[in-house]
Amino acid sequence: MLSKRAKYAIKTILYLYEHQSPVPISAKTISEKERIPYKFLENILRELKTHQVVRSVRGAEGGYTLAKDPNEITVAHLMRIIDGPIALIPCVSERYYESCGECENEETCRIRKLFAELRTEMLPVLEKSIIQLAGL
Amino acid sequence: MLSKRAKYAIKTILYLYEHQSPVPISAKTISEKERIPYKFLENILRELKTHQVVRSVRGAEGGYTLAKDPNEITVAHLMRIIDGPIALIPCVSERYYESCGECENEETCRIRKLFAELRTEMLPVLEKSIIQLAGL
DNA sequence: TCATTACCCTATAAAAATGATAGGGTAATT
DNA sequence: AATTACCCTATCATTTTTATAGGGTAATGA
Question: Which of A1, A35, A114 sits opposite B128 (nearest CB)?
Answer without folding.
Answer: A114
